[in-house]
Amino acid sequence: MAKHETPLLDQLETGPWPSFVTDLKKQAETKPEVYDILGQLELSYEDRITHWKHGGIVGVFGYGGGIVGRYSDMPEKFPGVQHFHTIRVAQPASKYYSSDNLRALMTLWEKHGSGVTNFHGSTGDIILLGTKTENLEPFFWDLTHELGQDLGGSGSNLRTPACCLGSSRCEWSCYDTQEVCYQLTLKYQDEIHRPAFPYKFKFKFSGCPNDCVAAIARSDISVIGTWRDEIRIDQAAVKEYVAGNYPANGGAHSGRDWGKFDLQKEVIDICPTQCMWLEGDELKIDDKECTRCMHCINVMPRALRPGAEQGASILIGAKAPILEGAQMSTLIIPFMKISKDDEYEDLIELIEKVWDWWMEIGKNRERVGETMQRVGLPTFIKVMEIDPIPQMIKEPRSNPYVFWNEEEVPGGFARDIDEFRARHKA
Question: Which key words tag this protein in UniProt (predicted)?
């Protein structure tokens, strides 16, 4: 295939950072169809519109998700990308790979596709960019039979679950994120591969409130590790931090001299709920007021640790639609034990309860957070049979009207109305 003139793309190679343009040019030496990727992209820059057609159903036998159909709207000019499908491959929990596995995966992609990859997509999948329709089944056969890996999710289904490093490497993790992510991925294979939902659905697992997979901003159900007892304090270590014998933030900023660590200024004064103070040289925390922001623990990791009674907070409804803008998920369950011993029974029960409700009343292409927004949070928590808590409230009410259910009013709601009407008639 012929090379294309790409003056606009060439400018991207002149900056200080590595450029995908350089990588694509190198790949095109062994995969000539990549020249047509560059040519079509250059034309898109010139015309300021995409030249990929929208939509197109394509997949492998038995699966409705995992492959994103992509076709050029100029196949005569760019025959190498007339169909150039994206394959999503499920990533291992926490994205742990062996070098042997990566080499085998890349060998497979060089055999059946363009060799162009994206590690990773925003959901988490391994993204393999560009292959022909006739190559899909052979690739899928080799992927599953030779490597023992599977496709991820795409379309109106459960997207591939993702998790942080969890207990494997992080001392703050309050539950085993890898295990629950793996088990739920196995349990919900049908929901991942055969779209049946109103729209996409994601759950992500973060081991602590640092939320390293940004579950609170991106997933329909966020499982974020937390604790419900008191932050553990090593007062001797606190004194060492104050004396300057331990570096703040675990020495993460050791390349620059930030001056002497000031506990009052750098921790206590910027606590969002002002729940910390010093009594003499001892640090005190009013744990009832703590919102688990993790700042104090991150700054003084040798002095402070999460509490010992650990589990997770469950938040529901993150979304980022174009028209209304991004919305973080809402706290629904403040604390839930996350244990393999009970096979994650409570979490699974909640997930499936949300699905049953959403699949019944959710509109087409409406995320569960948008459904919650449409019907209102009070209706949602009532359907979920969950008691409301102050943490669910975004802001104080501004509407002066209060509505009561009849069973909530002592003496009977109807009788009170009758008395009210009688007084006003008089």
Answer: 4Fe-4S, Iron, Iron-sulfur, Metal-binding
DSSP string, 76-125: TT-GGGSB--EEEEPPPGGG---HHHHHHHHHHHHHHS--EEEE--SSS-
Task: Based on the fold, state whether residues 46 and 99 are members of the same structural domain.
Answer: yes
Whole-number Å distance between alpha carbons of 27 and 35: 9
What pLDDT was estimated at residue 403? Answer: 76
Query: What is the rounded CA–CA span in Å between residue 269 and residue 131?
Result: 56
On whether residue 410 sits in a domain, the answer given is no
Q: DSSP code of 329?
A: P
Q: Is 207 left (phi over 0), alpha (psi -120 to 50) or beta?
A: alpha
State how far the alpha carbon of 81 is from the alpha carbons of 72, 321, 340, in Å.
6, 29, 46
CATH of the domain at 204: 3.30.413.10
pLDDT < 70 positions in the chain: 55, 253-255, 409-417, 420, 425-426
The answer on 361 and 292 residing in a single domain is no
One domain for residues 132 and 178: no
Closest C-alpha among 92, 94, 93, 84 to residue 33: 84
Count of the separate structural domains present in the chain:
3
Provide the 3-class DSSP secondary structure of residue 151. Answer: strand
Would you say the C-alpha torsion 259, 261, 264, 266 has a positive or negative sign?
Answer: positive
Q: What is the per-residue DSSP string for 368-403?
A: HHHHHHHH-HHHHHHHTT----GGG-SS--------
Instruction: Tell me: do 258 and 281 sit in the same domain.
Output: yes
Say yes or no: 201 and 344 in one domain: yes
Name the pTM for this structure: 0.90
CA 328, 331, 335, 337 dihedral sign is negative
pLDDT for the residue 254 = 58
Distance set, CA 266 to CA 248, 284, 298 (Å): 10, 15, 11
Domain range for 243: 232-305
pLDDT in tens, 342-374: 999 999 999 999 999 999 999 999 999 999 999
23-37 tens-digit pLDDT: 999 999 999 999 999
